[in-house]
Amino acid sequence: MKLGLIAGNGRFPFLVLDAARAQGFAVVVAAIREETDPEIDHRAACDERIVLHWLSLGELSRLIEVFHKEGVTAAVMAGQVKHKQIFSSIRPDWRLAKLILNLRTRSTDMLLGAVAKVLEDEGIDLMSSTAFLEPLLAEEGVLTKRAPDEEERRNIEYGLGVARAVSGFDIGQTVVVAAQACVAVEAMEGTDAAIERAGALMRTLQEGARGQEGGGEASTLARRLTVVKVAKPKQDMRFDVPVIGIRTVETMIRAGATCLSVEAERTLLFDREVLIERAAEAGIAIVGSPRGH
Fold this sequence. Notes:
Elements lengths: L1 E6 L4 H11 L3 E7 L6 H7 L4 E6 L4 H11 L3 E5 L15 H8 L6 H14 L3 E2 L14 E2 L7 H18 L6 E5 L2 E5 L5 H21 L13 E5 L13 E2 L1 H10 L1 E7 L4 E2 L2 H10 L3 E5 L4
Parallel strand pairs: 1-2, 1-4, 2-3, 4-5, 9-11, 10-12, 11-13
Antiparallel strand pairs: 6-13, 7-8, 7-9
Helix pairs in contact: 7-8, 8-9
């Protein structure tokens, strides 16, 4: 009953840690120095069944050594490791350097899939990252009291087509739409930054409208933003699973977004009650859209 936990950033690793401990697992945490919240030190200090090892992002060989030493044969990846870290100043060990050089493309799927294969070859089975958190997966249908209106539904329909095409190239999983036009597409910067960029762009349009003679509207098109987040067409549930938390809702509020669509059964909703309540206060509609195929 021993589980390896490869911990990235955010709350995801802590939720998996708590759920695994509640089910009786001893947990060996491989915390990534460049990403993991230092609060993990406190959690490990308070529980003798949690063993913590800090590793740098490039230390794939050491990760394997730690798991072998601790007798770990099954592990979970939880928490984001920013894609841009591939281009940062990390120094990969020989095993990771060889892996990166042999990649056809340096997309998230390709890189993490290769790491998973290396772990498997070393006798470490990488489990679905939702294995301990399935109750947090979004279900299909309207998740807030307010349902999307007709304009927002059209934005969702359009956005789903764009997001699924983009995610198929492993570029990003989120698009931001207004009046059935794509305002922003997520890339390496992440979901929240893409939403912020869309909000900034729409503000420049509003400022331009106010600057026109007579203060007239610059466009008859609606400027309300709809955020559409999907899983990849062949989403590997072992890593990079779509996640929505309160921070995303707060970012939407600042950006002026009024609707959020997530992919049902493949998107994790963290702090769901708080998230739904905050969305309701801001008049944001949240919907779980059917899974793509």
